[in-house]
Amino acid sequence: RADLCSKCQHRYELKWLLDISTKDSHFIFNEKLYCQTKGIPMGCPLGPLLADIYINYLESKLKRRLEENGVLYWKRFVDDCFVLVNENTDINKLLDILNSFDVDIQFAVETEKNHSISFLDILITRTNIDVNKTGLNTLPIEVLHSFLTITKRHMSIIRAVQYEQLLNILRLQYPREKLNNQKSLMLVPILYPAPTVLLSSSCIL
């Protein structure tokens, strides 16, 4: 269209291309020609992208309602969702909330069996472990030392604030005065590092 500015022209052309790709699909079944009016043809390269965009939009609209009805944790890969809920949550009510958003897009739900569920070909098992606070103080000293050492080496990935919060929790469970045997002393440099003293050039002899 020549009556549009360049920006609007690009939008118009993009919409036209999307309409052709998603609404002008034909197939033959039992020697009859059909036109697909809804959905995206199977195998269409646009499928995963449009699914991700739409489900992201759905999540943004329903996030508060889902959390108010018991959703604690929600992670998604394209259109497969992994959800943790409160113990007394009505799963059917959550499913109704999701399915009421668009009658043409209906979700199915799979719940855990024997405390396990498969997600993206990975078997996830829920365990009930009675731990106090972080539970890290039940680990062997050697394991905890290795864990903290590896964590410190990857500070570019782990936020410094989060690492310091972890150390503060551990300091409550491992007071300095209780780290007095040979094994526990290896934690001292990590949990209670010596203060760093900065000297100016004029102080150096």
UniProtKB/TrEMBL annotation:
Residue ranges of the TM segments: none
Family annotation (PROSITE patterns): RT_POL
Xref: Pfam families: RVT_1
Record domain Reverse transcriptase: where: 1-138
InterPro entries, per database record: DNA/RNA_pol_sf, RT_dom
Source species of the chain: Rotaria magnacalcarata
Superkingdom as given in the UniProt entry: Eukaryota
Name the UniProt record assigns to this protein: Reverse transcriptase domain-containing protein
